[in-house]
Amino acid sequence: MPRIFDFTHAILRRPGASAVKGLRAGGGPDPTFAGVAAEHAAYARALEAAGLELTVLDPLEDFPDALFVEDPALVFTAGSVLLNPGAPSRAG
User: Fold this and answer.
1) Residue 84 has pLDDT above 80, yes or no
2) Which of 63, 59, 70 is nearest to 15 (CA)?
């Protein structure tokens, strides 16, 4: 019987070019799209290496932080419902 925290799937959203204009936590160099895309690809590879099945969504250019899909969601066999995101820039 699977335990509640034995994850089998992950939902990712590819970053769009607008991702470099998203929210930032602090200082440091400005992000580049190449850097964001490379980090996202490495993240996806790590999840796959951990045995997760990935669902990868298309970018949403109007929402620069939409690649962060850690917001709460209700997931069912027939689909999922994303709940209120933590920031308007992820609301896509």
Assistant:
1) no
2) 59
